[in-house]
Amino acid sequence: MAGVADRVALVTGAAQGIGAEVARRLAAGGAKVAVLDLDLGAAEAVAAEIVAAGGSALGVAADVSKRDQVQAAVDAVVEKFGALHIVVNNAGVLRDNLLFKMTDDDWTLVMEVHLRGAFLVSQIAQKHMVAAKYGRIINLSSTSALGNRGQANYATAKAGLQGFTKTLAIELGPFGITANAVAPGFIETAMTAATAERVGGTIEQMREAVASTVPVRRGGLPADVANTVAFYAGEEAGYVTGQVIYVDGGAGLI
Question: Which of the residues 134, 154, 232, 246 is marked catalytic?
């Protein structure tokens, strides 16, 4: 079995939610996984969980918007596992607000984490992939890239990641590296639960509302995203690059 077996993967924002599930899924497929997050304790907890399940993992801390921290994290991963084949740029933050209320800091932070973070991690990691003549870069976009009320910053960042992905596919393809994006719709995580509470509802209400509008009649789970990432990350997906898969239960079809 090829897939991601014996490959080395780095997943950013992997201490919880989608990132943690992606890390678990890649580890279950046989990858050695670096769990990167701002919160080292939380990253190490996910890594320990993976190791306890029989996998191989390392917890590392970094602010993905800081070049020196990203460089140190990548160096630690390569020192530990001897290579770096797969990067999943998942780290993200929300600072939702209507345009007339959005502050400069709201805008800048979201751009720094989503766009600068993906840029730095990809740029620093790609030299190891080029040397190996093999690589997989997977960026987490969102259905919000198509536009979403109260998310001028987030929607712009996620749309930017799609353009970034396609450019990486063009530039890095000759070196055996693919670049693809996953764009989730509603996925039930701590972040979406907090969003529901902020607008005066509950995660259960949000789940039911989404389920009533999509063909599959349910909300999304982190595993739905992780399975799509695993496809892109696998050796068998080597002829798929520059693509965006919307993991949204068919939203917009009905």
Answer: 154
